[in-house]
Predict the structure.
Amino acid sequence: MKIKTGYLYHIKDKYFDVVNDENLMRNHERGKKRPTYFTIKDKNILWFIPISSKVDKYKKIVNKKIDKYGFCNTILIEEIFNEDSAILLQNAFPTLEKYIDHVHTIDGKPARVPEKLEKIILKNFKYLMKLHNKGIKIFLTDIDILKEKMLNETK
């Protein structure tokens, strides 16, 4: 399977067993492949960003952040496939191709977010990574530890 940035994928339960990180969003009710993940291909690592349908829950969080900081770029509320969705950049994590279960499909075709939205997600993710690299805690899990685990698996 050729993994591409901007497409949506589902992850295997095995990933969560391997990394053993309680801060990660899990597949619902083991075996059900939800949430879907927006994927960024970055050399040997894939970055998975959860997409949630629980928009009302995340709108409240977004509004609190906007009230406090004047903006929110860790959660984006955007329309994906004619439905509002929460793009949870703060929940991003690194993984490997071997942990991908399958590509998300709509009408039998691989699901890809619109190019305009892909650019918005990538711009925000790159900015959040810059903050992270400066030592500012943005992500809900320790992405450095997870990335190291994944890179060790590639050796």
User: Anything to note?
Assistant: The helical segments are 13-19, 55-69, 115-133, 143-153.
